[in-house]
Design a protein that fits this description.
seven-stranded mixed β-sheet; six-stranded mixed barrel; binds iron/sulfur cluster; alpha/beta; 31% helix; Dimethylsulfoxide Reductase, domain 2; single chain; Rossmann fold
Length: 694
């Protein structure tokens, strides 16, 4: 319930939208929220906020929220409201029946990057210790799993290297595959402030994003590459730096593996990687690549920020490693103002990865095959753990279609709308005998569910989120859960109904267990967070107040590792039938599939997804501004209105994916990153034609 009037108290908590992790004072009058005010002491936002965190929290009391559990025998039946006891007993019994019929690996679950660290930890613990397998995955599968793979293999840890304050000491900032103004607005403000002070900017993006030219900000270079050619452009930058002798030999000799560097340098120096050789492929002028390379190598402190335009490709992991190579090549690691900085999408996607959501990793990024790590958790949890990695989300869906995977628990994630190739996701869900959706609203995935467990919002629980700079922020309960329970309590009820015997009474106890089992969190507790406001992991005996900048004296893996990054073209090609390339992104006022923001006043700023198309491509198709167009790929088709703009290059079209009416992911394909299966959302060959509407 939104009240107006004078507040009489305030509770500091953390925004539940993007990975910036802004701190807010929730100001209350009695038990009613009056307003959300950005908290000046918040170290991620320093008193700033955007239209999502500040205004788009009313979904917590929206009439669409489901507050009572529901079950149904089949997805064609109507929902029946039941008590919590009935819903939990039914779910537990059905999961156990499926395992009895088809084996322990026939069920699994998906953790939520919207939920707290403590809640995510409990979900993966339930899957590992109670389900008895490693069939756990997370939405990071479809966003930053390549970041985990790429940075772990080059630097030794799966996270960004800097704090946000670091940008204030940058001299050159390279933004690739990210649109901070829309996706990470508060960080964008801090970046723009630094640019206004004179720092130089290089943007690598198919679109002319706002940062390229806006009030008081103009990029020194915009490299508008053809979607899918990130690796070719990054290797061409490295080619210039290597062949012109602009690399930081002292840094490389003291901090990196010199033999591997020499192999890499020989690779990068190959004339096939010269800017002139890749200009036609990438669509970027050789002069601009050379200019950008010289600026980044010689311009002082060089920082790299990137987003899903890097990871959501068939070479997503390769691109992350190419970025790491560039940072090591120029000595831009291990001090303020530099570094490799993934801009994480969801509020707690960093945390969900830290907490062991992936099927191959226990909390703290330790492989399930490592006996010593398993022994730590076996002692803490009192069960034997499976040493074999479990199924990733796409593998679960494939196995469901084949009949060997039969039951899925999905917490706070609308996989039908957010995952690629919607038809395949629907086929997998439809094939399952038990789909349990634990969420705030009856989302698209719930159309295929047999059990709906009402979830709680960030305003209704205690816990922590970890933002893109590894900062662990407190989430504090502002109002009682309208559904009766916080999400961690619901997971505990289900685990106990399946025989767990857990007895947590507050998330602080869960954090104590995380700290006891996970070295990078060893020093974290709620008292410390209350005292410091927040802390960046690793936080342990060696760093009792956390670690703003990583890899200061040495890389986590010892020596930094250069990895050869050969460009491999995606299998998704344009041709006569599908002549345009579609890429996707976000808009400032909305968030992901829009489940929350569409249920707030923010919808006035973006009431539909539109297709950006270059004037030349529009004219060729007889399409004018506002016309309905049919967007089709080999995976599917949808209909939306056209927005004619030269922000996109000829041959490229672009849309957002915030509205279920559009379902942009109907057209995205099942191609994915070679290392992590992260979907290739950013490159889809499509055709566009005028239409009479949906
Ligand atoms: Fe929330 Fe991100 Fe906006 Fe900050 S920048 S208020 S974390 S959506």
């Amino acid at each position: 319930v939104i009240e107006t009037g004078t507040p009489d108290r305030a509770i500091v908590t953390t925004c539940a939208y993007c990975g910036v992790g802004c701190s807010f004072r929730a100001e209350l009058r009695g038990d009613r929220i009056v307003r959300m005010v950005p908290w000046k002491e918040g170290k991620a936002n320093r008193g700033h906020s955007c239209v999502k965190g500040r205004f788009a929290w009313g979904y917590a009391t929206h009439r669409d929220r489901i507050l009572a559990p529901m079950i149904r025998a089949s997805i064609d039946d109507p929902w029946q409201e039941v008590t919590w006891e009935e819903a939990i007993a039914f779910t537990a019994r059905r999961f156990r029946e499926l395992q009895a019929e088809s084996g322990p690996g026939a069920i699994g679950g998906i953790t939520s990057s919207r939920c707290t660290n403590e809640e995510t930890y409990l979900v993966q613990k339930m899957i590992r210790a109670v389900f008895g397998n490693n069939n756990t995955d997370t939405c990071a599968r479809v966003c930053h799993s390549p970041t985990g793979y790429g940075l772990r293999n080059t630097f030794g840890t799966s996270a960004g290297t800097q704090d946000f304050d670091s940008v204030e000491q940058s001299d050159v900032v390279l933004v690739i595959g990210a649109n901070p103004t829309d996706g990470h607005p508060v960080f964008a403000s801090r970046l723009k402030k630094r640019l206004r002070q004179g720092a130089k900017l290089i943007v690598i993006d198919p679109r002319r994003i706002d940062l390229v030219r806006s009030a008081h900000v103009e990029a020194a270079f915009h490299l508008p590459l053809c979607p899918g050619t990130n690796v070719a452009v990054l290797t061409a930058l490295a080619h210039v730096i290597v062949t012109e002798g602009l690399y930081d030999e002292t840094f490389i000799r003291t901090r990196c593996d010199w033999d591997e560097f020499q192999d890499y340098a020989a690779f990068a120096a190959d004339p096939a990687h010269a800017p002139e050789a890749v200009a036609a492929l990438t669509g970027v002028s050789a002069a601009d690549i050379r200019g950008a390379a010289r600026l980044f190598a010689q311009g002082g402190n060089g920082a790299i920020y990137y987003g899903l335009g890097v990871t959501e490709h068939s070479q997503g992991s390769t691109t992350v490693m190419a970025i790491a190579n560039l940072a090591m090549l120029t000595g831009n690691i291990g001090r303020p103002g530099v570094g490799v900085n993934p801009l994480r999408g969801q509020n707690n996607v960093q945390g969900s990865c830290d907490m062991g959501s992936f099927p191959h990793e226990l909390p703290g990024y330790r492989h399930v095959g490592d006996a010593a790590t398993r022994a730590v958790f076996e002692a803490a949890w009192g069960v034997a753990l499976d040493p074999e990695p479990g199924l990733r989300i796409p593998n679960m869906l494939d196995a469901a279609v084949e009949g060997s995977f039969r039951g899925l628990y999905v917490q706070g994630e609308d996989i039908l709308q957010s995952d690629p190739d919607t038809r395949h996701v629907a086929a997998g869900l439809r094939a399952m005998d038990l789909v349990v959706v634990h969420d705030l609203f009856l989302n698209e995935t719930a159309n295929y569910a047999h059990v709906f467990l009402p979830g709680s919002t960030f305003l209704e629980k205690d816990g922590t989120f970890t933002n893109a700079e590894r900062r662990i922020n407190r989430v504090r309960r502002v109002m009682a859960p309208l559904n009766g329970f916080a999400d961690w309590e619901i997971t505990q009820m289900l685990a106990n109904a399946m025989g767990a015997g857990w007895a947590y009474t507050h998330p602080a106890q869960i954090m104590a267990e995380i700290a006891a089992t996970t070295p990078s969190f060893a020093g974290v507790d709620y008292d410390l967070l209350d005292r410091l406001g927040s802390v960046q992991w690793p936080c342990n005996e060696a760093a009792p107040e956390g670690t703003p900048v990583m890899h200061v004296d040495g890389f986590v893996r010892g020596r930094g590792r250069f990895i050869t990054t050969e460009y491999v073209a995606t299998d998704e090609r344009t041709g006569p039938r599908f002549p345009l390339l579609l890429t996707t992104g976000r808009i400032l006022s909305q968030y992901n599939v829009g489940a929350q923001t569409r249920r707030t006043a923010n919808v006035v700023w973006h009431d539909e997804d539109r297709l950006e198309i270059h004037p030349q491509d529009a004219e060729n198709r007889g399409v004018r501004e506002g016309d309905w167009v049919r967007l089709a790929s080999r995976a599917g088709e949808t209909t939306l209105r056209a927005l004619v703009t030269d922000r996109v290059a000829p041959g490229v079209v672009y849309t957002t994916f915030h509205h279920p009416d559009t379902q942009a992911n109907v057209v995205t394909t099942d191609f994915s990153d070679w290392a992590t299966n992260c979907p290739e959302y950013k490159v889809t060959a499509v055709q566009v034609a005028r239409s009479n509407g949906p």
